[in-house]
């Protein structure tokens, strides 16, 4: 393989080959963007707006920022045909792009049915526009990371829904006098926010004109063009950040109304899901009126159905879990998947079973197992063992129905011998559904091991240089991972120190990852743990191309 090519010298020509893309020093590129984010965050903390604007302009013009945005977006869209050629053209276009004259292209929207006879619009974006949005987001996000309240978790770097759930549990245990929880769901209203409110808050941003053009970009549905009024578009990369910026005023309103030293101890927000702990039901009612009035000022009326006041010992829903108390003092809490989450996973699995009628068993396994692992990896931090067993029993019934539909003229004994057996030698069950020819089988929910989630420090931000060592240690533990909670997979990642060996960056940097076998020449080794490795999908594509050209 050729030696590494200097990024700056290559970018001067704006014409980059596939091999040159492979040999970029991605570690240095990511460090450059991270260092600029550090500086923007620190200047924003000091309220040095002139320096913030200057650094944001540097970030927008940075070739490292452009390359990193292209890498992240093309990694997400890696399954598109001809993505490698698109990547090269993107570099040439974005390096020469004038943001002041760029006009977002009209999007094509698809109408997707939702539950309760509702519909939503899915925006189909072009990759170039996604890259530009990510470039803008890298410049805008660290500024607002310095402003956001510590108890806001939705769509922020380094934070997850697990952190929000852990925070609300800590609040309930610590302040047992707060017996009522005010639950508000603004998720269905976020895209109705008045864009003018956001533009006023971004008046010092260098490329506010581009954000304005995004907000008013039209769309096409069923070959009919619609001109949008100012509001947040659905599906954009930058939409979640703009929504947090708009809802930041709501956080400040609640903080000013109940300005006590323990404010951060009873208020948690994750995107549009808000949970507020209060002592009395009357206080919750008053607070609900204040929030409804704020919603009217920014362009929408909040339905009373979206506001619920619940007595904590009776239990309440927050995000996708159900939290209830085993005692009146609120010190013994249990967290389980809520009914909606269970119904959703059953509907998804049932849909796969129905589409698999008459198809090969391997087709069914290839689609069921990833769904099962993903759901179990999320809920393994909660008291889910009984629910896992219940879903396993339901899955067994679905597998029996699959066998009977596939072979209606065969006996049950024949089906049992063909599809069921002790496929997993570590388990005693002889009723595991699988394929005896390939030895592949259906993963069970109940095999998932319960784990303890370690929440982040409430004031820690990846853009704060003071917490750089903290985030290095946290990433090295793999706790930020949401994909590899299978014990054998986790051992592989742990052996790598959760680092991609190709680009030397964290495995969990928002890019898809793949597991591959390390093939040694003249070796016939089997698929054991010690000869497997995890790398980013885009890094694997680079390796494949490098071997083809050598």
Automatic annotation (TrEMBL):
GO terms for molecular function: RNA-directed DNA polymerase activity. The keyword Cytoplasm does not apply. Keywords: Chloroplast, Nucleotidyltransferase, Plastid, RNA-directed DNA polymerase, Transferase. InterPro entries: DNA/RNA_pol_sf, GrpII_Intron_Splice-Mob/Def, Mat_intron_G2, RT_dom, RVT_N. PROSITE patterns: RT_POL. CDD domains: RT_G2_intron. Residues 1-323 form the Reverse transcriptase domain. SUPFAM superfamilies: DNA/RNA polymerases. The keyword Nucleotidyltransferase applies. Pfam families: GIIM, RVT_1, RVT_N. This is Maturase. It comes from Bangiopsis subsimplex. The lineage of its organism: Eukaryota, Rhodophyta, Stylonematophyceae, Stylonematales, Stylonemataceae.
